[in-house]
Design a protein that fits this description.
Layout lengths: L3 E2 L1 H8 L3 H9 L7 E3 L2 E5 L2 H13 L4 H9 L7 H35 L1 H9 L1 H4 L9
Antiparallel strand pairs: 1-3, 2-3
Helix pairs in contact: 4-5
Length: about 140
Amino acid sequence: MAEEFSIGEIADMAGIPASTIRYYERIGILPAPRRSSGQRRYARDVLPVLAIIQLAKDANFSLPEIHDLLYGEESGPTPSLRWRELASRKLREVDEVIARAQAMKHLLEEGLRCASLQYELDACALLTSVADPRPEC
């Protein structure tokens, strides 16, 4: 018979809390393990699945995306094809986030260089004095 481990032992081997493993089972990312006397018993082959889940989480995949990666057919018939599709989609999202961050950085840098903006901010009664009822900006 193959060696089996408790949830605590698997959690220690994987470096994650046992509660995380139970959560993954509850939402269907991990299949329910065999039980012996009511206790979960895991084969060592669950460790690579947990490693893939962690890799996907590190790549900022959502839990539904991780489920699709492991079991879905929408993105491809094999895990490697599903990874390619999901990773390509995620790269487009990351590129959009980077573009927004670069635009924000440019705006902030320009705002720091713009003396007239700083003067307008300093001269704006709404920003400098709540007591003065006549706003100038």
